[in-house]
Amino acid sequence: MSGLLLSSDNIYGLVNPPPDPVDDLPELHQTIGSAAVRWDYFIDLSNNIGDHLVGGDNVTITGNVISVAISNSSSDSSGNNTSSTNTVVSRAQLTNVDLCNNRMIELTFDSSLNYLETYDLDNFSVSQNNEAVNLGEIFIKDGRANLSLDYSSNAVLDASNNTQLINPNNLSGQVYFETFNDTKHIGNFQTKGTFEAGINNIGYSKKGVSGEGLFNLTTSDMPTGVKAVSFWIKDYECAEQNWFMVSDIVRLNGLAVEIFVDSTNTLAAYGENLKKLFFDGTERTLAPRNSNLPFTLVDITPSLIPSSFNGWHHVYIEFQSAAADIELLSRNGLNNSVGSLDEIRMYNRGLTSTEIKGLAVTPYLTTISDLSGILIKYTRDLGDKDSILFTTTAPNIIQKKYCLTYVVLI
Q1: What angle do CA 371, 154, 201 make, to 5 degrees?
Q2: Residue-level pLDDT at 212
Q3: Phi and psi for 359 in degrees, rounded to 5?
Q4: Alpha carbon 345 to chain centroid, angstroms
Q5: Distances (CA, A) of 258 to 10, 93, 102, 255, 268
Q6: Nearest alpha carbon to residue 64 among 74, 54, 77, 75
Q7: Which CA distances in Å does 9 have to 37, 97, 151?
Q8: Distances (CA, A) of 183 to 115, 244, 277, 399
Q9: Region of poorest pLDDT, from 103-117, 323-337, 341-355
Q10: Domains in the chain, CATH or no CATH each
């Protein structure tokens, strides 16, 4: 005889079956309806909220509390191991798992996650009913881990008129990706601008405010070897003296690139390091302009004028040599626009025209209808970036890279 006892606010599991009931029940028995209950035979299961948690290396799970231990060993003068102890270095409890807009899985713990831009999505894998669920991004918002589902592949025609499927997340050479979904970013102007709904309502975008810089990766934040940048832009204020993009303007080494709005309210550029510019998947011609200036001005044709930037549009810029830094929609934080930015990607190579066309299709995230049959697996140190870190002030508990290894929702 075994089973569960459900009260109004708890669940108890029967671990030692009592003897068959007799007419003369001792005082240790209580009657609920017609059921005789020996409370000393039951164990409190209130900490199990319906999730099955299976521990991995150095991980112990009781209910939903995940404890991670590190092994400490000592050796004698000959190098022989004399003793070994395990010390718990981190504890956290998974308290909730939510599906947001059918395309983001939010994990809530009783300790907030440290905010980092460099958490590694490679540490996670998700499946539903034994079918892999591809992921697009991990980001931290309000101390919770959010896993977005993967981007849909876009069907585009290549130069031979053959259909190619381009997934924005699967292009090789990507060295930087910023979605603003966590309403944060690295680099300058972190507290400037505002956040609003992102392209196709995927998370957030960052919107410029008059008089403020918006986005600038300095040399110290810039990935190595950036040869191209891709981003989405909305309602760019294409008016004289506004800047669109600048790079390497302080070193006076001939590699500076500036794209700006000229006196005719038309986008123009200068810089020997500017190689290509695509707008909405179509390459623009960069034609040198006759001038008496000591540098070469470039006309962009067909022209990009104020009406070109109504709503969301995709921009791809490629450099001759690696860019040292990137500033978008301002120049040294001035001459800025009130346009919005989203989905900034940087690459260590030039992309093909087919890949650029694929990036220029409005992005969509794949969806799932619910969390039934979901398996979420997190294994630390699988990627080359950071494992998740918790912040807590509890005594004798320190923040530590660690893993919640499996979560099965049923």
Answers
A1: 55
A2: 87
A3: -65, -30
A4: 13
A5: 65, 50, 41, 10, 8
A6: 54
A7: 17, 21, 41
A8: 11, 22, 28, 24
A9: 103-117
A10: 4-44 (no CATH), 51-150+367-409 (no CATH), 154-359 (2.60.120)
